């Protein structure tokens, strides 16, 4: 039985197969409409989320399956003091596959160890968010044609942003990628990540000015400042509007640079950018459903 805890749980060849399947789902939706008839997905979300949870629900429903679950810890037995390991043992009797989000890093891993059904990490604290990474990789592969051979700028909260951490880990397995980390001093990417890049001889730079690096980027991955992971409100308020991508900044970019964002957006991309053909963040949402459909089929061994 396979689970998904980290994007590295799949080899790059396995990811290629997953993305090919997602592509086939996109082109032949009717073919997959009953692929999960009679199967149940449990969404166990101990931390608020609309998009990821609904993306999973949409994916399972589009495959003909059904969905059960809870959307915050308060409405689950966690509020009564039940452990994640007990919850998953119970869920294993109710569902065929489980997507779990938890504010504590490693909680989905604990669930996996006690589970009788495949568990998908749908985001654990500031740690990893593998299905967002699969979404990001599929978006890049579909819109850029290849994974590799580009300069990617990651901008915003690189310290707490789990989507950033997951994406960097996944991208280092491809060739000819240069990273540009754009953040305020306080929100720089963690040292363990820069150490990992140094160890692998992967080129990266850390800057604070988005304008300066804009012309060199092939992809720009914008992120929100992660309010819920701040220890004090003052720091959040000081940093939250540090970067705002607007049309003036987009004019500095290459004509085919793509803008990605895991969403939700707060202020970091001005709505005027939405009309720019290079804005790819809503397409990214659509790829997120296809890749979750492909993942569910793969983990349930139905593909
Ligand atoms: C991200 C997350 O939850 O980490 N959202 C998402 O799943 N698309 C990004 C964020 O919350 O900023």
Q: Would you mind describing this structure in some detail?
A:
The chain is an alpha/beta fold and 303 residues long. It has eleven helices and nine strands. The strands form two sheets. A five-stranded parallel beta sheet has the order 7-6-5-8-9, with helices on one face. A four-stranded parallel beta sheet has the order 2-1-3-4, with helices on both faces. The protein starts with 11 loop residues before the first helix and ends with a helix. The mean pLDDT is 96. Residues 49, 51-52, 123, 129, 132, 162-163, 223-224, 262-264 line the site of N-carbamoyl-L-aspartate.
Features:
five-stranded parallel sheet; binds N-carbamoyl-L-aspartate; 303 residues; alpha/beta; 38% helix
Question: Helix and strand layout, with pairings?
Answer:
Layout: H1 12-27, E1 40-45, H2 51-62, E2 66-70, H3 84-94, E3 97-102, H4 107-114, E4 119-124, H5 130-144, E5 150-155, H6 162-171, E6 177-182, H7 191-199, E7 204-207, H8 210-213, E8 219-222, H9 233-239, H10 247-250, E9 258-260, H11 281-299
Bound molecules: N-carbamoyl-L-aspartate (NCD).
N-carbamoyl-L-aspartate (NCD) is lined by residues 49, 51-52, 123, 129, 132, 162-163, 223-224, 262-264.
